[in-house]
Specification:
By secondary structure, this protein is mostly beta strands. It is built from no helices and eleven strands.
């Protein structure tokens, strides 16, 4: 299973970005999907997560500005980020709890991470 994140970049304060994360591989089912971020010198923190039934949790810092969504048919999770602030600058990582199948048709549960995409918000 691989997660490929994209959509980061440089934006001015008040601007918007949309992150995408595509899961691929021998996937049987994807449960929770989410976005985390890690700023320089800080610990990785949750931004938002969404279950496969659409239940959403946001960090306080993301409420009212960010929106997480997913397309189960495309195995993709999105993060729409609006009204960006300089303190939102970080490397953003997606993750997913995946039930995958082995070549011998066994089911394996695992949590997978994308490679990270840099978001920089200038003041």
């Amino acid at each position: 299973v691989q997660l490929q994140a994209s959509g980061g970049g440089l934006v001015q304060a008040g601007g918007s970005l949309r992150l995408s994360c595509l899961a691929s591989g021998r996937i049987s089912r994807i449960d929770d999907m989410g976005w985390f971020r890690q700023a320089a010198g800080k610990q990785r923190e949750l931004v938002a997560k969404i279950t496969n039934s659409g239940v959403i949790t946001y960090a306080d810092s993301a409420k009212g500005r960010f929106a997480i969504s997913r397309d189960n048919a495309k195995s993709t999770v999105y993060l729409q980020m609006n009204s960006l602030k300089p303190e939102d600058s970080a490397v953003y990582f997606c993750n997913a709890d995946v039930i995958s199948t082995t070549p011998t048709s066994e089911y394996v549960a695992g949590r997978y991470w994308g490679q990270g995409t840099q978001v920089t918000v200038s003041s």
